[in-house]
Amino acid sequence: MAINKDGNAYTFGFSIALVVVVGVVLSSLSIGLEPLKKANVAVKKKMDILSAIGVESTRKNGEELYKEYVEDSYVISTDGEVQKDLPKEKTAFYLDVKKQYRDKNIKPEDRLYPIFEATKDGNKVFVLPVVGKGLWGPIWGYIALKDDYKTIAGVSFDHQGETPGLGAEIKQDFFEEQFEGEKIAKNGSYAGIEVVKNGSGTEPQKVDGITGGTITSKGVEEMVNRTMKVYQKYFSKK
């Protein structure tokens, strides 16, 4: 029996078969590339951690430099207590703090907080992840703390979907460099960082916000202060 290639049945059948074949190919590619995607995410995370301590890296040397500078990592609770015997997915490097922050089933008091210990130029620094909300989506980053447990050595911020030239500027050097030297503690108590728009960012505990990016700037302020309060509980015990 001859197939009528001009009929609707043939057209629909061919279209369905094509969709199935393409779907299978794409699905196979996605599964096959999954290890590569995970490796790229891991390297990018290591690059961001290194960036917070002022070490430039690339996808080619990020793994090597991370091993050179980062010596230890662990996780604390909201009470500032080190957590032990955690499953792999909850250990410092593998803990997805962005996913944890978005998960409505995890209460704020049950969140975990990674700490990465690094040494640069003979000085110990503690790299601390932060995550929050910008105007259009999540914002996140890493804050490096000096071994006095209160002075910021450097930061590295990033975002998803913030407006170029406005909120997206939080990842630019001119914004990040303002945090260097700021204190997160005074007399053993947490001291907040304020992101301002009145030009007073040169004053202690203040940084100038992004012009036209007030909501994202305040998002950075909120995520830094909320997270650093927890870390200060740990460092105040040292």
Count, helices: 5
Radius of gyration: 23 Å
The succession of helices and strands, N to C, reads HHEEHEEEEHEEEEH
Cα distance spanning the termini: 85 Å
The low-pLDDT segments are none
The profile of the biggest β sheet is:
6 strands, antiparallel
Number of strands: 10
Shape: globular
Q: Mean pLDDT, as a whole number?
A: 89
Task: Order the strands across the largest sheet as they lie in space.
Answer: 2-1-3-4-5-6
The structural class is: alpha+beta
Helix content: 25-40%
Number of spatially distinct domains: 1
Strand content: 15-25%
Which SSEs are present, and which pair or pack?
Blueprint: H1 8-52, H2 62-69, E1 70-76, E2 82-83, H3 97-102, E3 113-120, E4 123-133, E5 138-146, E6 152-159, H4 173-176, E7 185-186, E8 189-190, E9 194-196, E10 206-208, H5 214-235
Report on this model:
By secondary structure, this protein is an alpha+beta fold. It has one domain. 36% of the residues lie in helices and 23% in strands. The protein contains 5 helices and 10 strands. The protein has helices spanning 8-52, 62-69, 97-102, 173-176, 214-235, and strands spanning 70-76, 82-83, 113-120, 123-133, 138-146, 152-159, 185-186, 189-190, 194-196, 206-208. The strands form 3 sheets. The protein has a 6-stranded antiparallel beta sheet with strand order 2-1-3-4-5-6, sandwiched between helices. The protein is globular.
